[in-house]
C-alpha cells in the first residue's frame, strides 16, 4: 500500500504544510508520494529529497531572515491596514499599494525570472525530480494552451519556478526548459489544480491525504468597491468551486484554518507552523482508521482471490 500526500497552493499559508508533515512524521504515518502546486510544490520538493522535517523548517526560517528574501518586496502585498494607527498611516499604505499595482500594468510581471530562480535555489537543490527519495510530482500549467502538466522528471529548480510563478508577479517559464513545447509558457499550478489529489493517484498512491489551506472568508462577503475587488471575488469563487470538486476525491482531508493569514504575509511563519500541527493532530485518529481499514480490505480481497484459485 502506498500513501500519497497532496499539498495545496496558498502562498505564505503554505508554511502550515511544514507543521502537518512534522506531525505525520512524528506519528509514523508513512509517506510514499508527494504532489504539490505552487507553495505546495516547494514544500513537497524539499521533503521528498530529505524526508526529515526539521532541516526544512530551519531552511525556511533562514530564508525569511536572508537579504535575498528582502529583495522580493512581497511585503507590498501584505494587508497592513488593520495595524495602521492613523488616517495618515492608512493613506501611505494605500498610496504605496497603488504605486505597485500601477507599475504592474506597464510590464508582464513585477519581478523577473533571475530573481525567482535565486530565491528558489536558496531552498531547492539543483537536481532532477526523479532523483528524489520519495516519489514527487509538481503541477504547472501552460498559459498558451491552458493545459495542465504533472512534472515527475526533469530539473527540479525549473519545475518549482514554474509552479510558483504567480501570474502578474513572476513571469512564465519557457516550456523548453522542462522538455515541453518550445512555445509553452509555464505558470503557477495552483491556478488550474490547487490541490493535486488526482496526480498523487497517477503516481501510484493507493490512499491520498489532502492538505487543504483554503479555509477562507466567504468571497461573497468581500467588498466590491472597485475593479480589482470585482476581479478578486470572481477569481476566489472560481478557485473555491474547483477546490470543492477536487477535495472529495481524497481519502482523508486535513483542513488547515488559515483564513486569518494573508497569502503574502510571510511574517506569520511560526503561527502557520503551529496551525498546521494542530490541524494534523486532530486528523491523526481518522487517518489511522483509514489506513487500518484499507489494509484490512486489501487482506480480505487477497484472501478472496486465494480462495477462488484454491483447487477443489
List the helices and strands and how they pair.
Elements: E1 3-7, H1 15-26, E2 33-37, H2 39-49, H3 53-64, H4 67-70, H5 87-104, H6 113-123, E3 135-142, E4 148-151, H7 156-163, E5 173-174, E6 185-188, H8 197-202, E7 207-212, H9 227-247, E8 252-255, H10 269-309
Parallel strand pairs: 1-2, 1-7, 2-3, 7-8
Antiparallel strand pairs: 3-4, 3-6, 5-6
Helix pairs in contact: 1-3, 1-10, 6-7
Structure characteristics:
disordered C terminus, 8 strands, 312 residues, eight-stranded mixed beta sheet, alpha/beta, single chain, globular
Summarize the structure.
The chain has 312 residues and is α/β, with parallel strands linked by helices.
Amino acid at each position: 500500500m502506498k500513501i500519497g500526500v497532496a499539498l495545496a497552493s496558498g502562498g505564505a499559508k503554505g508554511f502550515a504544510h511544514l507543521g502537518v508533515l512534522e506531525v505525520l512524521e512524528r506519528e509514523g504515518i508513512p509517506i510514499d508520494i508527494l504532489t504539490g502546486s505552487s507553495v505546495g510544490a516547494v514544500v513537497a520538493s524539499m521533503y521528498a529529497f530529505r524526508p526529515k522535517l526539521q532541516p526544512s523548517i530551519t531552511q525556511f526560517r533562514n530564508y525569511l531572515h536572508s537579504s535575498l528574501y528582502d529583495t522580493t518586496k512581497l511585503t507590498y502585498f501584505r494587508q497592513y491596514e488593520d495595524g495602521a494607527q492613523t488616517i495618515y498611516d492608512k493613506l501611505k499604505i494605500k498610496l504605496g499599494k497603488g504605486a505597485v499595482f500601477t507599475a504592474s500594468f506597464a510590464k508582464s510581471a513585477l519581478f523577473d525570472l533571475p530573481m525567482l530562480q535565486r530565491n528558489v535555489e536558496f531552498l531547492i537543490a539543483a537536481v532532477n525530480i526523479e532523483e528524489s527519495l520519495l516519489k514527487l510530482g509538481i503541477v504547472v500549467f501552460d498559459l498558451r494552451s491552458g493545459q495542465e502538466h504533472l512534472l515527475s522528471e526533469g530539473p527540479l529548480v525549473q519545475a518549482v519556478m514554474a509552479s510558483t510563478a504567480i501570474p502578474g508577479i513572476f513571469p512564465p517559464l519557457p516550456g523548453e526548459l522542462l522538455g515541453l513545447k518550445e512555445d509553452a509558457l509555464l505558470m503557477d499550478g495552483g491556478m488550474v489544480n490547487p490541490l493535486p489529489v488526482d496526480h498523487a493517484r497517477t503516481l501510484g498512491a493507493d490512499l491520498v491525504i489532502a492538505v487543504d489551506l483554503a479555509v477562507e472568508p466567504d468571497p461573497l462577503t468581500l467588498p466590491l468597491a472597485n475593479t480589482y475587488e470585482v476581479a478578486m471575488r470572481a477569481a476566489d469563487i472560481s478557485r473555491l468551486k474547483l477546490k470543492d470538486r477536487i477535495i472529495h476525491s481524497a481519502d482523508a482531508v486535513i483542513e488547515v484554518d488559515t483564513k486569518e493569514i494573508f497569502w503574502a504575509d510571510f511574517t506569520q511563519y511560526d503561527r502557520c507552523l503551529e496551525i498546521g500541527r494542530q490541524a494534523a493532530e486532530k486528523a491523526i485518529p481518522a487517518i489511522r482508521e483509514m489506513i487500518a481499514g484499507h489494509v484490512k480490505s486489501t487482506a480480505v480481497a487477497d484472501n478472496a482471490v486465494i480462495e477462488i484459485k484454491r483447487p477443489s
